[in-house]
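[stage:ingest] chain + small molecule (adenosine-5'-triphosphate)
[stage:ingest] validated
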Amino acid sequence: MTNQQTSTALSVTGLTKRYGDRNAVDNLSIELPAGVVAGFVGPNGAGKTTTMAMLLGLVRPTAGTGTVLGASIDHPAAYLSRVGALIESPAFYPSLTGAENLRVFATIGAQDTARIPALLETVGLDGRGEDRYRSYSLGMKQRLGIAAALLGDPDLLILDEPANGLDPQGVREMRGLIGRLAGTGRTVLVSSHDLSELEQVCDWLVLIDTGRSLYQGPTSDLLKGGATGLIVVPQRSADHPALRDLLVNRGHEVELSDDRLTVSVNGADVSDLAASVNRAAFDAGMVLVELSPNRTTLEDRYLSMVHGGAR
Ligand code: ATP
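[stage:predict] done
[stage:export] tokens:
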């Protein structure tokens, strides 16, 4: 991997791809800081593959400007040697072993074959590298594809739906692999139509629908502000009314349901609010058994943003 001269790995503005009267990608702008593992998430048909294909010079944009690793997207040849990609399953030789296939790819690409054992280990295929490709499971084939994409020690790795079609175990292994790629200095852009596949391993998210950006930024920021209430449950249910009165007297908005109280956050810092409620309950001799923000999950936030659905 070469040293990044810039702290931005990818910066495109107004990226558009028109097919007939339909915009597959519609005025999309993406900026990725160098070194992030970015999840590129959108429903089927949202434009993920088309975007990635444009970044890789496989599809010519209708409009848009920008840079990949500091070089203009108008001249992909200037940066492609520093980019690794898995955009369709690579055409491996079924009768060759995984390691032999990587040697073929490395030789064609004038890349260092000495890295192959370490790469097999990175993708979790150590011990299976001498098995024929045709004996691999779908997950192993996908992981060998990622090993091939890593052969050139790229600064930017672009993976299009690497977990597509995998069973839950395969999805977990793929997630583990993406997690291992984090923190290695390279930038990763990995797509999925399923946010839950990526939210745990991506520190950055680019959410799109119908070719347009819905959100992009740190994964943690998408969750911020998600809590609207603080759920408070005293140990003794007989304490519910007294606790509600106590909190209302302290100026809080409180809703009482069968088994819990919900204190409105109203823009307060959730941790400060929790501490203050806990202290008030303790001072009044009540023990709390639950004190938690009613945070919506990332998936809830994402689904509430996606209106287009599959096209
Ligand atoms: P998926 O998750 O299903 O792979 P995606 O987000 O990768 O979807 P794209 O494959 O980029 O989405 O497709 C975006 C839109 O562009 C879709 O409506 C698709 O039908 C259309 N499209 C893609 N390629 C072409 C093409 N070569 N000709 C015409 N339309 C196309």
